[in-house]
Design goal:
single chain, 111 residues, mainly alpha, 4 helices, elongated
Amino acid sequence: QLIVLLYEGCMQWLHMAKQEIKKNKEEKLPNWSNYSSYMGMALEILTHLQDSLDEKQAKDFCERMFALYDFMKGNLTKANANKNEKLIDDVVSLLKDLKETWKEAIRKQTV
């Protein structure tokens, strides 16, 4: 269940980052510090998820998840540099799919 919470937290930070993009596009003197902080928090969560993978349990699965998290981090790094909402949306979509998959796995374990 912690993984689901981390996915939700990451999506929340990304939602807040997108709000900052919209807000700053309307400002004469935009301040991108909040945006950068929110993106940084999302990246930290993905790094934590990578670091918590245990290859001793399921090496192939862990390698694939590490690569997926790496892909998401790469997209967020590009999005951060270019203020690109589409790249943020792409990562959020992946996170939603992962969250639902984990929720289903948890549900099946408890039945």
